[in-house]
């Protein structure tokens, strides 16, 4: 299960005062958000080996840009996410299931506007956990954080047209299909069509899974 991140949008005018507080959610350390069924936290270097083993398989890599090629490359990617987070441009959550200490997937969010009102997200999860409810539980936590804490009003996503699993997950979360992007994604020497999705606060749908929902954020 995966989505793709598109190109950054041009900068917009300075943010209104009502959104200044949301800036704090984008600067510094990514919070840890935990339920009995999933934990979201910043990636750490100890995740590099598991991410390399789990996210470089053919089913996972079919609809995303090529993953880092080595454990060391994943380590450099993790360092990059920390720098982006410190600069206030990017949030990256590792998805950690209850039976693991290391991440088995990633949810990335990139700010599209200076006032934090619009962002784009992408996600990737090991196929071992497809269909288990882990992604939906994790996505719900991320959406709650983005809409209620990080100042997001519009969250965009792009999927390859043939990526039915990711598109289905977005629809279950309440995302609305907005457009068709011809040759919007280039991978392995081939241009692929994409679908543009968006979620507004009022679009969200209640998700029923077997994963408990009591939440701890710190």
Kindly describe this structure.
By secondary structure, the chain is α+β, with helices and mostly antiparallel strands. Helix content is 24%, strand content 28%. It has a single domain (29-212), classed as Aminopeptidase, CATH 3.40.630. The protein has five helices and nine strands. The protein has a nine-stranded mixed β-sheet, with helices on both faces.
Give descriptors for this structure.
218 residues, alpha+beta, Aminopeptidase, nine-stranded mixed β-sheet, 5 helices, 9 strands, 24% helix, globular, disordered C terminus
Summarize the entry for a quick read.
The protein is of the alpha+beta class and 218 residues long. It has helices spanning 48-55, 58-61, 71-86, 134-148, 164-173; strands spanning 33-35, 38-41, 90-96, 105-111, 118-125, 154-160, 176-187, 190-199, 216-217.
Proportion in helices: 10-25%
CATH topology: Aminopeptidase
Number of domains: 1
**What is the mean pLDDT?**
87
Low-confidence stretches: 7-20, 210-216
Level-1 CATH class name: Alpha Beta
- What is the CATH superfamily label? Gcn5-related N-acetyltransferase (GNAT)
Taken as a percent bin, the fraction of beta residues is: 25-35%
How far the N terminus sits from the C terminus, by CA atoms, comes to 27 Å
In total, how many beta strands? 9
> Can you count the helices?
5
Q: State the CATH architecture.
A: 3-Layer(aba) Sandwich
